Amino acid sequence: FFEIGHLDKLKSWLSWSWTYICAVWFAMVLTMIYVLRSPLKLQDTLTSASVFLNTLTPKFYVALTGTSSLISGLILIFEWWYFRKYGTSFIEQVSVSHLRPLLGGVESSTTTGLFSSVNGEAEPRPSVSECKVWRNPLNLFRGAEYSRYTWVTGKEPLTYYDMNLSAQDHQTFFTGDTQQIKAEDTVMQKAWRERNPQARIRAAYQAIEMNHECAAAYVLLAEEEATTITEAERLFKQALRSGKREQRVQDPVTTGKDINLLVYIKRRLAMCARKLGRIKEAVKMMRDLMKEFPLLGMLNIHENLLEALLELQAYADVQAVLAKYDDISLPKSATICYTSALLKARAVSEKFSPEAASRRGLSTAEMNAVEAIHRAVEFNPHVPKYLLEMKSLILPPEHILKRGDSEAVAYAFFHLQHWKRAEGALNLLHCTWEGTFRIIPYPLEKGHLFYPYPGCTETADRELLPTFHEVSVYPKKELPFFILFTAGLCSFTAMLAMLTHQFPELMGVFVKAFFSTLFTPLGFFADKMESFMPSSFWHQLTRI
């Protein structure tokens, strides 16, 4: 330990002194150049260079500055495009990735190190799951909803990355647990991987021809081929019957994937009932599913239940569900945090007035509502702009990133109507949500009630959301230095080119005056060096 401590001190001393050593070395180089100016014939070189520059016509300077402006403008355009697409500067990224190791720098390793918790103590931050992509609990039906959007607008609401994740989910849930894969299961495995929807549908019919009780094939047809929710519900009921019959004839040891399939089918049937207006039936199906399979909490069926209960305006039941799932030991979501804020805001929002609150102060109930809103906004700061309709909504993706823009789109798409139904709730949100950012000094370094906001959400959201949607970025990124620098350089050189073309003589006088002023301190320093050192000393140095 003693040797390690001394080694660290030595390294810190060397890194501290390196700056000053470089400065001394630079000063010595300048001094040697000045001393050796006669043997190196620097004066003659400078004289010949000045004569050559004086013979150049103003057209040369116009071409020089114009070319510089054009090149810097092209760099500016590329840098701006790269920043808009990837959120960083290309020159800065290359400098950090390639030049820093050559200069002896190291990458910062604090991103996965110790972070401050709410009580101020250092604790390890989980870096693996902070940008994990989750299945959207309320994802729409491809054939009955996503395809309709494509027919009307001609735009694809789902990205290939999102659909590929869904294919992996289906393979894992429906065909990944069998020890002896059947022929129809092999066909369905290929069907989920097909990129073309028609190829997937043809593969599903092929699997049904092999086995009329292939539940996974009916699931695919319900998701992709059905053009209405009623038709999708009919196919899901057929899949449920086939799945139950298949489960009865199989050995109980090999029914793991059948259980996953049945849970998926029952959940989608409940969602069909919810979309067709049979909300109480949907709530009962969801409650039964949660009682029958309590260990499948990762499917987040309670979020479907919360949305259905809010539609029924059964706020007491919503509070009971939140009491179970809004626990400090359980993972949070925008649905949990914002539903909790909605219930507390609903209790005070009808009579809330910003002017009255500023005069008399906030009551206890109003303070609780504001704190709940601040908590929700800290968890996902993208949601309020969609709820307040400051940003346009799109169809939610099939997968979401918690605390990201994709989760905000998915939450607001289904829950905006519930906030509008609570009178004054959106007004309270509008008055208080921006106050959250005054509580958090800098979200990427230190959180308040949650871990610091992850910095990888923008990249993942760009993969999940379609290209026609403008991804919400938090915290707002400032323009990189190199974009500002190239913009200034382009503008400055373009102005010089224009002025040189219009006023060549005046610009010549200005340039000469500028350089004479620039080199005046160097001349003053040289004169002082001549007067300070004896001439014989300089003569001996030049001879050496």
TrEMBL record:
One of its GO terms (cellular component) is membrane. InterPro entries: ST7, TPR-like_helical_dom_sf. Pfam families: ST7. It is a multi-pass membrane protein. The chain crosses the membrane at residues 12-36, 60-83, 479-500, 506-526. Its main location: membrane. It comes from the Eukaryota. Keywords: Membrane, Transmembrane, Transmembrane helix. It is found in: Membrane. This is Suppression of tumorigenicity 7 like. The lineage of its organism: Eukaryota, Metazoa, Chordata, Craniata, Vertebrata.
